[in-house]
Amino acid sequence: MPGRVPKALLFDLDGTLAETDSLHLPTWVEVLLPRGIEVDEAFYRENISGRSNAEIVRDLLPGLSDEEGREVFEAKEASFRERAVDLEPLPGLLDYLREIKARGLAAGLVTNAPGENVGAVLPALELQDFFDFIVLSDEVEAVKPDPAPYNEALKRLDLAPDEALAFEDSVSGIASAVGAGIPTVGIASTQRPDKLRKAGVFMVVEDFTDPELRALIDAR
């Protein structure tokens, strides 16, 4: 539990701002099934959720060249973006973000998602003007689970790790935030709460309606 009110709150995108697995899963099925790989929910959670596209394609389709692999995940992401218009924010998110802004706290987005996806998802959630900055995977030397994305966020904010608070739904995202020394809240939208706790979060909530989240940004 943080000992003081954070100066900035840092959010993952997929699974944290919105439940996106229901869109990502069928789009992976579209590109992997023709290549002989069957994807169900269990396979998705174990082998795909929270990982970068490059890692997924490299591990599941090791025979492809870099260019062929890029074509696979670009086709997958194009299909995802077509579906993204139907996304809705997690319960309580919009109210929580308004409270953050009302308190004068900074807010950043730290994501492995391609920039094109961010450009599709944020307007669908009506959040395109909310975040003070966005850290994308192609802006850092390594993606989650490496701490590099969150280290970049701290650098932009000029803050120490304990002056920020992160929200993540995946083990790889938690590893990234915790690896950067940032206290992290687990959002149990894609993984079991016990798995998130084991990964290193200090708190697990189902969504942003949990009253304990308000206590984290209230002056003490």
- In the CATH scheme, the class of the largest domain would be Alpha Beta
Based on the structure given, which CATH architecture of the largest domain is correct? 3-Layer(aba) Sandwich
Radius of gyration: 17 Å
Helices, by number, come to 10
Beta-sheet strand percentage?
A: 5-15%
Enzyme class: isomerase
Pfam family, one: HAD_2
EC number: 5.4.2.6
Cofactor: Mg(2+)
Brief summary:
By secondary structure, the protein is of the alpha/beta class. Helices cover 44% and strands 11% of the residues.
Descriptive tags:
220 residues; alpha/beta; Rossmann fold; DNA polymerase, domain 1; 2 domains; 6-stranded parallel beta sheet; 10 helices; 6 strands; 11% strand; globular; Beta-phosphoglucomutase; HAD_2; isomerase
Description of the molecule:
There is one protein chain. By secondary structure, the chain is α/β, with parallel strands linked by helices. A 6-stranded parallel sheet has the order 3-2-1-4-5-6, sandwiched between helices. Helix content is about 45%, strand content about 10%. The two termini are about 15 Å apart. The chain folds into 2 domains: about 140 residues, HAD superfamily/HAD-like (Rossmann fold), CATH 3.40.50; about 60 residues, DNA polymerase, domain 1 (Orthogonal Bundle), CATH 1.10.150. The chain has 10 helices and 6 strands; from the N terminus they run E-H-H-H-H-H-E-H-E-H-E-H-E-H-E-H. GO terms for molecular function: beta-phosphoglucomutase activity; metal ion binding. Keywords: Carbohydrate metabolism, Isomerase, Magnesium, Metal-binding. Belongs to the HAD-like hydrolase superfamily. CbbY/CbbZ/Gph/YieH family.
